[in-house]
TrEMBL record:
Protein name, UniProt field: Glycerate 2-kinase
EC number: 2.7.1.165
Keyword set, alphabetical order: Kinase, Transferase
Coiled-coil spans in chain: none
Superkingdom assignment: Bacteria
Organism: Vreelandella titanicae
InterPro entries: Glyc_kinase_flavodox-like_fold, Glycerate_kinase, Glycerate_kinase_RE-like, Glycerate_kinase_sf
GO MF annotations in UniProt: glycerate 2-kinase activity; glycerate kinase activity
SUPFAM superfamilies assigned: Glycerate kinase I
Entry-linked Pfam families: Gly_kinase
Length: 357
């Protein structure tokens, strides 16, 4: 039997590479004669950079940037000098994994560090930037990134806004004259791991704010602030992408990428599968084992296991999903090509540990 091991990271527990190693240990014990193809995956969130560097042979560089709460940290990014392509993973700069549960604050966390990584790529001579969105600790619609790139977001007194999404409710003026001019010469492709809009019931604040430390009251504040930001941006540029699928990715970074960087929003798993040659590798296997930290209804919006299952279904290859826990709506995975779902822990599981279609 030939098996391809293609899990995403298990948030707050294992990287994709560590998950591959753990699965390999199990296979070697249970099926010692099996052959396997290790293929760590990502859909735009943490670990996607590692998958792309492994697949493309890009160089790993490091840059000192501001973390989600302004602390300095070393963030990795990828550089391919032959085709002048930079790989930038938002989670490296302002990922949720950098904060403890008590430190998480969606009201004030910032994407400033992502802008600093973009500047590093521009300084290296990038002609193309692959921007991976997912796993963020932020909910500022990319405001911090814009400020790092020298855009000015001002209140009604002409003062720069403080970091974080909550401050956007005070936005009175958007000044883009100072925005780094080199951005107009770069092609930006954005990998998103969800198809949520910026605001509303399926928006960034309502759906993802709570896991970033937002209370019910905070969610209301953030949703209103991001809607206000979108309105002010529309007044300035004439375009309003708040309802665009994926604009709510990474706390609204999808909105900023499309609006200010001219980026197309692509399903992250599709981009990564193309980069790693997944479809070609799938032709050689009998089984796919994939997984993520939590499988639930949100996974159907473009998370790694579902993207892989859809691809494998086209080729008639069965798919097993390992999930740290199962949440509401996980059964929908069977409609997407998943053959079997196994929860690796009892936490959060109130249905059954093993389910097979």
């Amino acid at each position: 039997m030939h098996i391809i091991l293609a899990p995403d990271s298990f948030k707050d527990a294992l990287s994709a590479s560590e998950a591959v190693s753990a699965i390999t240990d199990g296979i070697c014990r249970a099926l010692p004669s099996a052959q396997y193809d290790a293929c760590p995956m990502g859909d735009g969130g943490e670990g996607t950079l590692d998958a792309l560097i492994d697949a493309t042979g890009a160089e790993r560089h490091y840059q000192t940037v501001q973390g989600p709460l302004g602390e300095l940290r070393q963030a990795a990014w990828g550089w391919h000098p032959i085709n002048f392509t930079a790989y930038i993973e938002l989670a490296e700069a302002c990922g949720l994994q950098h904060l403890t549960l008590l430190e998480r604050t969606a009201l004030h966390s910032s994407t400033h560090g992502v802008g600093e990584l973009i500047i590093a790529a521009l300084n290296a001579g990038a002609k193309r930037i692959i921007l991976m969105l997912g796993g963020s600790a932020t909910n500022d619609a990319g405001a911090g990134m814009l400020q790092a790139l020298e855009a000015r977001l001002l209140d009604d007194q002409g003062r720069p806004l403080s970091p974080g999404g909550a401050a956007l409710i005070n936005l009175a003026q958007v000044e883009l004259d100072g925005l780094d001019s080199r951005l107009s010469e770069v092609i930006v492709e954005t990998a998103v791991d969800v198809d949520n809009p910026l605001v509303g019931e399926r928006g960034a604040s309502v759906v993802f704010g709570p896991q970033k430390g937002a209370s019910e009251k905070d969610v209301v504040i953030l949703d209103a602030a991001l809607a206000h930001f979108a309105s002010k941006v529309a007044e300035t540029l004439g375009n309003d992408f708040r309802e665009l699928p994926g604009s709510g990715a990474a706390g609204g970074m999808g909105f900023a990428a499309r609006t200010f960087l001219g980026a197309e929003l692509c399903p992250g798993i599709e981009l990564v599968m193309t980069q790693v040659g997944f479809r070609q590798r799938l032709e050689l296997v009998d089984l796919v084992i994939t997984g993520e930290g939590r499988l639930d209804g949100q996974s159907m919006a473009g998370k790694t296991p579902i993207g892989i299952a859809r691809c494998a279904r086209e080729m008639g290859v069965p798919v097993v999903v390992l999930a740290g826990s199962l949440g509401e709506g996980w059964q929908l995975a069977y409609d997407e090509g998943v053959t079997s779902v196994i929860a690796t822990t009892a936490a959060g599981v109130n249905i059954r540990l093993l389910a097979t279609a």
